[in-house]
Amino acid sequence: MKIKHIRAYLMLCSLVVFLQPLQGFAQQSSDGSRTSPQRTPTERDGQHDFDFEIGTWKTHLRRLVHPLTGSTTWVEYEGTTAVRKVWNGRANLVELVAVGPAGHFEGLNLRLYNPQSHQWSLNFANSNGGTLSQPAIGKFKNGRGEFYDQETLNDRAIFVRFVISDITPNSCRFEQMFSDDGGKTWEVNWIATDTRVTNESAAARTRLPHTPTELDGQHDFDFEMGTWKIHPRLPHPFTGSTSWVEFDGTSVTRKVWDGRAYLEEFETDGPTATSKV
């Protein structure tokens, strides 16, 4: 939902603050001084934070037409959002189709979980651009998700904040905000309220048609739909090495946007490691 900087809850790492664990202070004793570092609290495993959203949703959107200009003009959209698991929930793919007075748009968000940092990256694309944007980075805490990134709007550097809140089994709320003063103040420019579609027949009725325009080359990867057995060989590039490591695995390719985008997952096993991509 990036008609310019629309990020739709699909959205939206330079503002991210990494918390460094506190070290224990040295304690003095009659036998001499010793340093006894405190234990770092265990980070919560958030790899299933988005499981609540899997399924089909009816989406009502409000968008501020000219953010950070003093404008108070909003436009509204009605749409459908479909969310599916990737990597058994450690990633997920969001597809949104919506229509309103400003036109028709399609967006997707590929959300990836980093098990080392315990953070999610939200990688957005729209059907007009065809590339993934700079990711917004963040995590959930106490049932609320906050994600940040830095972008440019009208040749000015801005901060972007994306918030997921009011989560229930059948509804949730998404807000996007911009700041042009280093995060001192924030202006909301995107509000999405989702209501779950509870059965497949209702989901089918709520789905909006995708953009019908046929673009040259947009179905070039149709041949690859389905499941494949793969046997890749992975060299050590740009090192002069001539040794290869062999893996066997499975690749699954699915359509996105009726074939104008694709999602490929493959899993391999080899002598050195198991890989999922």
Notes on the protein architecture:
- With 277 residues, the protein is mostly beta strands.
- The protein folds into 2 domains: 156 residues, Calycin beta-barrel core domain (Lipocalin, Beta Barrel), CATH 2.40.128; 55 residues, no CATH class.
- The protein has a 10-stranded antiparallel β-barrel with strand order 3-4-5-6-7-8-9-10-11-12.
- β9 and β10 form a beta hairpin.
- The N terminus is likely disordered.
Radius of gyration: 22 Å
Beginning-to-end CA distance, first to last residue: 26 Å
**Second CATH tier, the architecture of the largest domain:** Beta Barrel
**CATH class descriptor of the largest domain:** Mainly Beta
> How many beta-strand elements?
18
CATH homology-level superfamily of the largest domain: Calycin beta-barrel core domain
**How many helices in DSSP terms?**
1
Tell me, rounded to a whole number, the average pLDDT.
78
Strand content: over 45%
Q: Describe the global form.
A: globular
